[in-house]
Specification:
Radius of gyration of chain A: 31 Å
Oligomer: homodimer
Number of strands of chain A: 30
Helix content of chain A: 25-40%
């Protein structure tokens, strides 16, 4: 009798972790321990068995027994550890164990004092004998002996208590479980996918720089070879990822001038996002930056210093991009034959043509776009920051990322989408490893708390990994403009301790904070449109703090995790106080959010819940200072160093 | 070009209301207004249109335009009203409105002061002309004229502001929306089912009685004809549903005696749940109760008095049931040929054989079980109380209820499953109209509040309708045993005001509260096993309160709804205080939970949130007393009448 002709009894539901019932991948990292839970139940009192089946895509499934952890809620669990990078999936099977059900019924009757159990014995004997018959060729000698003993006992043992002991021995129960027919087996569908990234998918300090602005001559962009000179300084600050805006040839037609003026002056380098000219498109390196070999050398040199490269990929073209001539069918044409440039009316971006994802030739376009990624992967790039993904079809990203990661599971994608929440979440669901966030605009205590609680405990944490940038070439927040150096220190500590992945855009460490005009979040003399020369050791820089914070992060497992955040009470609305914990490690972090004044307060540590004694030592990892703390503690924070990162000594 | 060859852009998600993404029916009633919400968005700034499509199963889908109600969250809504009883479904379609998108872009350019818009005009003209071509045969004269005027304007109007006015007139936008190609239309799948019950699915006061115990002779069961005499008295108490335990012939083999003794004495009537003997099975009426015609007459007489019958169907058989002989293949057989009786070891129910839902002949069994329901429906029964559904396969119930309701959409099913929460929820999901609940065991303020909040606002309210029984033939709670008359009044008011569907088992109104032994929830001399004769007007009965409470319920829309409950603060843990509101109607209900002592407290009414003035009049619907209330109010409740049901006079 096939299993389908059997009556279905078992329900498997509320399977977790899962995103949209398994439609999208849960995000985890290699080494993570996954505990799968499910509600599994059936009609009647019969005993259920359940197994978790899991595997890396393309490999054989492993089986893990599930255990009932909360009988009152029919809640079962099993765990496994992700060993490999890539797409995994798991499912659950469950079936009725008729022998164990029979043993339990037998137990209750024997314990209840029943002595006339002949019918029951025959029923048990039938189960055992049927199993002996079924498994005659497959059972081990030990199992076969156990089953024979059980049958013999059921036929002739007089003492019911002793018989029950014999029939309920674990080895026999297990043998019967293995060898019986699993006639009503059900399998949860669809299988639930989990993507295991390498650790960098979750943890890393990013530093964004324009490679052309790493030199000393304001009239000439620096090359990759020249830019290499600054790598040790960046590595010394403790960054793990070096993130570069587009490095391709820049268009000449409608090139933007300094401070985003419509007409470029001779010598203006143009925006790196106006990609492509006669020297090449997305596959090419800007000649002033050097050759592909120079880029590869830069990647290698950064790697030697412990940093890897993240490359910005903007799927758009300058009017001079080779594709405009060679593949006009990949662009939008107006009825009069003109190409549509990018606009956000009344603003025009005449130096940029968007690609037409509705093109009839989009199969070829998609293949060409995929090829760009393959090419840069072959040149050593394993992290891509995607410019404006929310202006391209979501299905395209799901296909692209899935396809690339199938052959390169270690590749990471960061979505630069600043738009409404549903689109940002959907991009994260369809495959983006990390996402930009609203962190830059959350500066008050309550808004920080509300936003972080949404990110870490609303379900978002299963698939949405924010990358907390404290600034970007497009966003110099008013808080930094007006708060000066203390504001930069505050935002650095917040970004670096609230999120395991965070970043700064170069100049942040120098506390650069002059906007192009009041009320704007754009930088004055933005290096998006010109070559910049900086004194990287300018007075009042906060490189010491960047270095210290990144060093603390590298030694703290708690700061390398995201959903282990808990806000704690502080009596001053200018001081935010939170705990990060992992295993035995416990950090207590207090930050003064007011860059203009010192503040003090009482912070509360729930010592009982956190398993702390009434008094315990804490060490400020930023300064080395040590204190004895208890449940309620006095904190005073000065703008000169507006944070404590306190390690609890247990 | 087919829609499938088009690039997909639009995402429709977070569609509500829906149970498990449309796997199971949302429960509503005829007349209910359904507001469907969804998150609908796409890449880029293009304008989206969306329609809600809904229908009663088997009828043509109606279309309702959806509107964006929260642009920041891409949240759309549309509403419709359920006019018919039965299974409905809805889905959502959405597409890009290219003309509206173009008009919006044109507007922003014109408003931004751009004057050179020749390319844009040609683009708009192409959209309009393509639409004229497509719709030449289908467009109305008015639409065709509008389109021609638009095309003409795009060709020759000089004044851009006036042209924009012409192109953005609502009639034109609407015509273009209708007549344009909806090339990237997406449809949400799967369609979301909603079951619309008649109002009785949500609202009704139930009275359970044993028809054999309605007479005056303790040595002889009363017949339906005799039982009719008591119907006016029950109707006068205000009940809407009269619920009868099984009325079939009762087995003789292993018949249980009084107080559930193992051996019946001559004349003992046996348990009605031991169904079937030589006189017939589930299709038959117990001869002492009368004929099928007598039953039909009883149903009709109850109907004349405003009550309908709910019949208990227990899918199990006494050893004497005709099926045992005629269909032995529908039962469990031990290897020695004996039939398995029902057990909950060490307890035995030797008077009952369970049916074997795993039988090889279960197709025939299922058909026979279905036939039972059809038969009783033909005899006037539209409500079935199902005994122990959790001991039968869940799939069976999904099939049975779906199949019956397809031809009898007005039929209601009540699940009598007292088991763990996952099974109780699953039975409600697969189709049971109503469910028994844990209400009987929730007597303290906090446990009542926590349980009611779970039932009314955790998502359960979309599919799980509890029927709050204050007692049952199986459950005489210790609270009633020890609390006496005040406890009965308290539990009556709680059941009748916390849930629109509630019930009592006869004897409750007489405050019968003697258990078979201390610590048991079983009644002494339970009428499950013997004929009972009662004085239905015994002293100290609370029929006056039952009548008054049921009258209040009939006149209160707020008490006929379930998820309109809100607990409010009271300063005494013995007094529970809550509001029920619907439209302008607002009830404030305070109940003393301590049957032994009077209590007083201050209750808080959030006047501002509830739209009340600082002072307002309230009328106790139980007593007619009137008070002037404000935000904080003094309440004293005595066990002699332990509740206020206050109607707020606005």
């Amino acid at each position: 009798m096939s299993s389908q002709s059997k009556q279905k009894h078992i329900v498997i539901r509320d399977v977790a972790p899962a995103i949209d019932q398994g439609r999208f991948c849960v995000k985890r990292c290699v080494g993570d321990h996954i505990t799968v839970s499910a509600c599994i139940f059936r009609d009647g009192p019969e005993v259920i068995r359940a197994r978790l089946l899991w595997s890396l895509e393309g490999t054989e499934r492993e089986r893990v027994p599930m255990h009932k952890v909360n009988p009152g809620l029919d809640l079962w669990e099993a765990s496994f550890t992700l060993r490999d990078c890539g797409r995994h999936s798991y499912t659950i099977i469950a079936w009725t164990d008729h022998y164990a059900s029979w043993v339990e019924e037998f137990r209750r009757k024997v314990m209840g004092g029943r002595t006339e159990l002949e019918s029951e014995r025959k029923e048990g004997l039938m189960l055992v004998e049927r199993c002996i018959e079924r498994s005659s060729s497959s059972a081990s000698n030990e199992d076969a002996a156990l089953l024979r003993q059980a049958a013999e006992g059921l036929r002739s043992d007089k003492d019911l208590n002793a018989l029950y002991e014999k029939l309920s021995q674990p080895a026999l129960i297990e043998a019967m479980e293995r060898l019986q027919e699993h006639g009503d087996l059900v399998q949860y569908e669809p299988a639930v996918p989990i993507y295991a990234d390498r650790i960098r998918g979750r943890f890393g300090a990013w530093y964004e720089l324009f490679p052309r602005s790493q030199g000393q001559d304001p009239n000439r962009g620096s090359s990759f070879r020249e830019a290499e000179a600054r790598l040790p300084d960046i590595a010394a600050m403790g960054f793990e990822v070096l993130y570069l805006p587009p490095i391709h040839p820049i268009g000449l037609t409608h090139r933007k001038g300094r401070n985003n003026t419509l007409v470029a002056q001779p010598g203006d380098p143009g925006s790196p996002w106006a990609i492509g000219n006669v020297e090449g498109g997305h596959e090419a390196v800007h000649p002033e930056l050097g050759t592909v070999e120079d880029f590869v050398h830069y990647v290698q040199r950064a790697g030697e210093l412990g940093m890897e490269i993240a490359l910005d990929i903007a799927l758009q073209c300058s009017p001079d991009h080779p594709w405009v001539k060679n593949h006009p069918e990949w662009f939008y044409h107006r009825p009069d034959g003109t190409l549509k440039y990018a606009e956000n009316p009344p603003k025009k971006y005449e130096d940029i043509y968007p690609l037409n994802f509705d093109s009839e030739a989009r199969a070829e376009l998609f293949a060409a776009l995929r090829e760009i990624f393959e090419l840069w992967i072959s040149r050593g790039v394993k992290i891509f920051r995607i410019d404006n993904p929310h202006t391209k079809p979501i299905d395209f990203w799901e296909w692209l990322i899935g396809d690339i990661q199938r052959s390169h599971p270690e590749v990471l994608f960061l979505a630069e989408a600043f738009t409404r929440p549903p689109m940002m979440k959907q991009l994260a669901k369809v495959g983006f490893t990390q996402s930009y966030s609203y962190f830059t605009w959350r500066n008050g205590k309550e808004e920080l708390r509300a936003y972080l609680e949404e990110l870490t405990s609303s379900g978002l944490q299963e698939f949405y990994r924010p990358n907390f940038f404290a600034n970007t070439p497009d966003i110099l927040h008013a808080y930094l403009q007006h708060g000066g150096r203390p504001a930069f220190m505050t935002r650095l500590v917040l970004a670096a301790t609230l999120s395991p992945t965070y970043g700064i855009y170069s100049g942040f460490e120098l506390c650069e904070n002059v906007p192009v005009r009041p009320g704007s979040e754009e930088y004055l003399d933005s290096e998006k449109y010109e070559i910049k020369v900086r004194d990287w050791d300018a007075p009042d820089n906060i490189k010491f703090l960047v270095r210290r914070v990144n060093e603390i992060r590298r030694h703290s497992e708690a700061l390398q995790r995201f959903d282990n955040l808990r806000f704690l009470p502080s009596s001053n609305e200018n001081i935010i106080f939170y705990a990060k914990s992992w295993g035995e490690e416990l950090l207590l972090i207090a930050v003064n959010l007011d860059p203009h004044h010192w503040h003090d307060c009482t912070v509360q540590v729930p010592v009982h819940e956190l398993g702390l004694p009434p008094h315990y030592g804490v060490e400020d990892l930023l300064t080395g200072a040590r204190y004895t703390w208890s449940e309620h503690n006095y904190v005073r924070l000065d703008p000169s160093l507006p944070a404590h990162i306190l390690l609890v000594h247990r």
